[in-house]
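FAQ: What does the model actually see?

It sees only this:
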Amino acid sequence: MSVVIPFYNVADYLDECLASVRAQTYSDLDIVLVDDGSSDGSADIAKQAAEEDFRCTVISQTNSGPGVARNVGAKAATGEFLTFVDSDDRLPPDAVEALAGSLGEADMAVGGLNRFDQNKQWLSPWMSAVHGQARAMASVEEFPMAIRNFYNPSKLFRRSFWDRTGAAFRDGVTYEDQPLITRLFLRARGVNLLARSVYGYRQRPDSSSISQQQHLVEDVRSRIAAWQATLAMFDEERAGQAVRDAWLLTVYGTHLHWYLNNDSVADEAYWAELRRGLELVDAAGGRRVEQFVFPTRRLAIDLLRRDAHEELVRLREEGLFRVGPDLDNAGRPLWEGWCPPGSEFWTPVADRLAGPDAHAVRLEARVARWLDSGELQVAGTASLDGLPPGDVSVELIARCRGRERAYPAVRPADPYWTDNPSQRQRAFSALVPVAELVELAAGDDDGAPPGGVVTFAVGFRVDGVPGYARLCPMTRVYQWASAARLPALDLAGSRLSREEGPWLAVRVEPAVGDVKPRKDKFELVGCCFTADGLLLQVRASKAAAAAGFQLFCGADEPLESETVALDGDKFAVTLPYPDQAAVVGHAKRQLRVKATSPDGQAKTHALGIAQSVVDQTPIIAQKGPLTVKLLVSPGGRPTLGFGPSSDA
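And it is asked to produce this:
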C-alpha cells in the first residue's frame, strides 16, 4: 500500500499530517514524500520522519507544482494500491484500513471527506447525497452522484488500474486533479463507495492553500480551464447524461457560488470571467440541473446570466447569501421577497422535487442529551432547499443491525436557534426512549453478542405531493453544540456513548461489571466570565458542602477559588484567571474540587457538569492576549482551554 504525500512549504502542518499517516491501523505502508522545492524547513521534517520510520522515503525536486510532484511520487510508489494525501491534511486512524477493506475486486474505493479548521470540523452538504450509504458498483453509471466527489483525496486506486489507464495529473495548472479523477471514475471496472469520512481536509486560517484563492481572477480562469478539460473528457469517454448532470450540479450549486459570494465579484474583470465560465457550462446543457440549486444561488446565477452586475453586488451587500435557503434577510419566504412566483428562476414545488433531488437536503444535528425521563432528545435543523418549512414534515429514524424505528419530530421552542430566523423555521426535535436504543442493538437469535452502533436519519415528506418521501442520514453535527459532546450513559447491563466522528451515532455495548449511574458529589450548574475571573455555580451534596471545599484548575499550580454559599445546595465560586505568562501556546486544564473529608483529610474529587451548561458551550472570554474557553471532555467533565486571543 503506497501513500504519496507531495509537500511545499508546509512546516506548520506537515508534522501533523505525517503523524496521522504513520499511525494508521493498516501499517504495511510505503510512504512516499515528495519535496517540491521547499524552503521553510518542511524538508527537515520529512527527513526526520524517514530516519524514524523505515516506511518513509523522501524524494527532492525543484519546485514544479503539485501535479508533477504527485506524478513523481506515483512512479516511485511500490505498493499494489495507491492513495494520495495533501501535506496540510490528516487521516482518521483507520482511514487506509477502511478503504482497503472496502475495495474488494473493484478498481477504486472512494470515501467521504470532512473539512476542519482550528476550531471545528464539518461535512459539506453534498456528502450525505454521495456517501449516505455504502455502494458497490460495476460502474459509476449505476450511481452518477458518486462523480461529485471528483477531488484527489479520500480515494484508493488499484495500482494496475492506475497504470492501465495511463493516469497522470496535469502539469503547471491549478485544479489539476479534477478532470483526472473524473476520468478514472468513468474508466473504473468497479467503484465502491464508503458511507463514512476517511479524510480530513484542512481549511487554513490565512487562506494560503491553493484551493482557497477564489478571490483571484486567475483562479477563476484556472477553474474554467478545468471545466473545459472535464467537458472534453466527457465527450471522449462518451459519458452518460446522468453522470454529466451530476457533475454540472456541483458546478452550478457549489463552484459558481464560491465566486459569486466573494468580495471580488464587484470587480469588472472578475465578473467578465465568471460570465465566460457560465456561458461554457450553459452550452454544455447545465441549465437542466439549475432547478435543483438553492433558490438564492439560482437567483445569483440568473443575474450573472443577464449581466445584472450592479444588482447582484447590491443584493449580496443586503445579505443575499447570509440567510437560509427558505427566508430572505427580513425573515419572509424567499418567493415573497427575491424570488416571486412567476419569475424565470422560480419553479413550483412539484417540479423542484423531480429528478436528482438528493442535493436539496440541509440537515444538521445540534442537540443530543439524555433526559431524566429515560429518553434521548435529538434536535437540529432539517429542510429540503427551496421549500417553505410548513410544506415539509420530518421524522427521526434510528437504525442498527438492519432494524429501524421511527419517532415523530416537532418544531421546538426557540432556545437553540434564537439568532437565526431561518434555522428556527427549519428546527426539529424528537425523543427516543433509551430502552429502545438498547433493544435495537440487542443480540440476534443466532447467538451474536449484543451491542452495535445506532445511527440516525431523517425522513422527509412533502405536503401536497402524494407518495414523495426521502430518507437522509444525519451525517453532519454542529461541533460547538451538545450533539458533539453527548456524555456516556451507564445503565444496568449497558453503556451508551457517542460514536466519534462528524456524524451523530450512539454506540451501545454491554456494561463491564456492576455499573451504576454516575452521581457526582459536585456538579457545575452555571458559568459566566467576569472581569475578576470565571464565576461558577456549583451544586454540592449535603455532606460534601458541610465539610467545605475549594475549586481549582490544573495540577501543578492550581488556581484556587473563593467560595460563597448560596441558597440550599448551591455555591458561587470565583476562579481567577491564570497569569498570562504562565500559559504558553495552547493548554487545557481540568477543573477539580478539593474537599475536606469527615476525618479531616483533604481529598480531590472530579467535577460533573449539568446538561444545561453543556448546551451553552463554548463559553469564551478574553483577558488581554489570553483567550479562555469552557470545554467539555468526552467523559462529560468541564475543562478550561487557554490560548492566544488571536485564535478566538
